[in-house]
Amino acid sequence: xxxxxxxxxxxxxxxxxxxxxxxxxxxxxxxxxxxxxxxxxxxxxxxxxxxxxxxxxxxxxxxxxxxxxxxxxxxxxxxxxxxxxxxxxxxxxxxxxxxxxxxxxxxxxxxxxxxxxxxxxxxxxxxxxxxxxxxxxxxxxxxxxxxxxxxxxxxxxxxxxxxxxxxxxxxxxxxxxxxxxxxxxxxxxxxxxxxxxxxxxxxxxxxxxxxxxxxxxxxxxxxxxxxxxxxxxxxxxxxxxxxxxxxxxxxxxxxxxxxxxxxxxxxxxxxxxxxxxxxxxxxxxxxxxxxxxxxxxxxxxxxxxxxxxxxxxxxxxxxxxxxxxxxxxxxxxxxxxxxxxxxxxxxxxxxxxxxxxxxxxxxxxxxxxxxxxxxxxxxxxxxxxxxxxxxxxxxxxxxxxxxxxxxxxxxxxxxxxxxxxxxxxxxxxxxxxxxxxxxxxxxxxxxxxxxxxxxxxxxxxxxxxxxxxxxx
Length: 472
Hints:
Elements: H1 3-14, E1 17-18, H2 19-28, H3 51-54, H4 57-72, E2 79-84, H5 90-102, H6 104-109, E3 110-115, H7 119-128, H8 130-135, E4 138-140, H9 142-147, H10 219-223, H11 226-229, H12 240-243, E5 252-257, E6 266-269, E7 272-279, E8 282-288, H13 292-301, E9 311-313, H14 315-327, E10 331-340, H15 342-346, E11 355-358, E12 361-363, E13 374-376, E14 379-380, H16 381-390, E15 394-395, E16 399-400, H17 401-409, H18 415-418, H19 424-438, E17 447-454, H20 458-462
Parallel strand pairs: 2-3, 2-5, 3-4, 5-10, 10-14
Antiparallel strand pairs: 1-7, 6-7, 6-9, 7-8, 10-17, 11-12, 11-13, 15-17, 16-17
């Protein structure tokens, strides 16, 4: 059975589904979902690139920031970093290798937890971190892996499952292919200006039949309330005591890179909340009254769509954020993603941000190839920050990725990037790769960084180098 048929079958049995349920099935169906399929998703052979594909300096700079966080916390004997969606583990490997080389005291205290549900990616991670898994330096949180709602993509990057996994020692120094600096990774460049989806208005996504009068013939399905199907099927965040692998008193850093943009969202317009129906082999968009939860989200963190525009309600992201933030008694939360604030939406930007990615091409049509294309939505940082605050954390000022990385790299003039360069040509290549990370032409202005802290003075946390841009 193809995923399209599986979706149609559920619609026949249960009635029109919320967009969040459609997005969940497309991405996370255990057998047919985009992140469950054994195909390449990242790099030249895949559909998009991620930060760690650009250069190891991304992980090296974050290792420097994590070490500084450890010092702010008083240099505890143990510190856990929990990475959501580690994928192939490139970021984790860069952090661990650089920490071991440059910050040995911090490295001795560090325990690195991977939250990854994809079986094939877990096998790759086991091969990559073989010796570190045996020593306990790296660990899987099986409780979260089996219960958390997000399969990886995510966070940092994914890997190919075409070839058998070959054991690679974690400390072998084996180089990884990185993005050529003259190639534009389109997946890394979501527009900060209104894009194609912002102009779609409240009409069907491209090449989808308009809504009609034919409905699923299922009286029971028609009697179901909106709230019965809202986010239906998507498991909730694990409880806070199950999220972490270490004891609650051990300081914790939760790291999420390109994680929240892949969580399912509700889509709303003046007509209500989007529902997906099926007719004559096509998906059909229909509208149901918005739920009180959806309307409250718009009131607090977004805006009510007007004049045939669309917006998203990231209800599942809020639940995930609440779970992870609550798990941090002492420590930090670092979220890196592309997104927006409520103020930007009120100014008419970032409306209708649902996009699909396939073979490095962006499309506003999420119905074209269910299970064969990535589907994302920009992150509502106003909602994430508010949820972190409600969970007991202090959310610091939102920064661009450029500001965050420049703050970290300023102290040693980005020596982390150039240390391995022996020839002028190597320095020139690395300079181009670094430019892609920190300049507006690359990722620097389209990605944002949200840092939350808990269990320490706000002033101490504010003095972190990553948060220092503009204060020196």
